[in-house]
Amino acid sequence: xxxxxxxxxxxxxxxxxxxxxxxxxxxxxxxxxxxxxxxxxxxxxxxxxxxxxxxxxxxxxxxxxxxxxxxxxxxxxxxxxxxxxxxxxxxxxxxxxxxxxxxxxxxxxxxxxxxxxxxxxxxxxxxxxxxxxxxxxxxxxxxxxxxxxxxxxxxxxxxxxxxxxxxxxxxxxxxxxxxxxxxxxxxxxxxxxxxxxxxxxxxxxxxxxxxxxxxxxxxxxxxxxxxxxxxxxxxxxxxxxxxxxxxxxxxxxxxxxxxxxxxxxxxxxxxxxxxxxxxxxxxxxxxxxxxxxxxxxxxxxxxxxxxxxxxxxxxxxxxxxxxxxxxxxxxxxxxxxxxxxxxxxxxxxxxxxxxxxxxxxxxxxxxxxxxxxxxxxxxxxxxxxxxxxxxxxxxxxxxxxxxxxxxxxxxxxxxxxxxxxxxxxxxxxxxxxxxxxxxxxxxxxxxxxxxxxxxxxxxxxxxxxxxxxxxxxxxxxxxxxxxxxxxxxxxxxxxxxxxxxxxxxxxxxxxxxxxxxxxxxxxxxxxxxxxxxxxxxxxxxxxxxxx
Length: 547
Fold this sequence. Notes:
With 547 residues, the protein is an alpha/beta fold.
């Protein structure tokens, strides 16, 4: 049966070829393809004619005129013969005078040493097969698998990177449906430790092949070394731990004193993830006043390391505002969790100024961070550990308070008993004290009486002596003061204004009684009062005159 594609006139392209397992895998990569068991043909809608032609042309398929016309109308770029293409495994050089089918023009003559493209590609393939006669094992990082994972035939690249993560080489790889099914079966039997996906390192067995129609070589994957990927991750983790141990960093963070009340928590995780929700849910259910500051990070892929380091730098600058740091990531395959086997992240955790609690994956999962931080089984367990610490601190405080109260009760009971004993002695002691104080008071009264009598006698004697001296002294003093008084009276009488008035003068006063000494104060019309030796005159001023 020849390889051909034809239109059935109902909007469908029919693909005819003799059974070939590889060609079946190729056809299955076409969109919307369906197998017609009655006609033994594959059927594809004409809307996908471009994909059909460009995929099957390389496999040597011929196309009917309708198919070619539809292909050109939809922008196809391949140059197809109007009469179709007859599939051939090899191409023999045509004679110059022999026309090509469907082409009236003769081909130019070819020298015997000339290569056709297919012959060149065929010899290169033979050389590759000679150089790689058997399957080989190849190690590389998967790239581009995720975007083709939905296809039955998956094409992607295996990449080699240098120590800085820069890509230095790649090769195209192809995984056919049958090989993929076998690999997935083996992974499932091993407990699904990981899945083939971008950015993981794998070791695969396969054949080196050059695809003649396209002139490109590829690596056809036949098998996968499950243990290599897991072993490589474990080896890298062990190497990180060994270097940190040599530098004395393994116990550096874990030797920090853990706070009694770790209520201010910095959380490093993927925001909105199950781990994020589990941690916050555990804190809320505890009833304690946790204050959480979350910094979102990538927890898988090449951005894990820079994003986690960025979060650690953020919290390092705010260490005074926190009690503890929590790094969490939910469960996943071992290769998913292996992104935390990073030496820069492990060093940053080991040297972090606050205790770092690590809750990554499940109980059986181990990462490099578990060796430098306070390891817990899961994110929930990490949060529960902080809750337990706060609960223990609360219980310790409550226990201390109960102890203080109990001790206080004992002290009060002892004091009460002592007070009772003292109270029984108070009446007797008081009686004795009162009797003693009464005797002292009587003696003081006796002494007071004797002292008062002596003082009174002495004071009476002094009074008598002063009285005997007071008479003569007071008489002399009174006579002297009487003379002084008479002298002052005479002087005052001489100064009395009335004495002046008696000699014919008058005293002018205003109606208010003030003595007038300035004529300017009695303008024309002012009423004045003149005091004479005998009587008083009322005068009216005609104004002042200049003197």
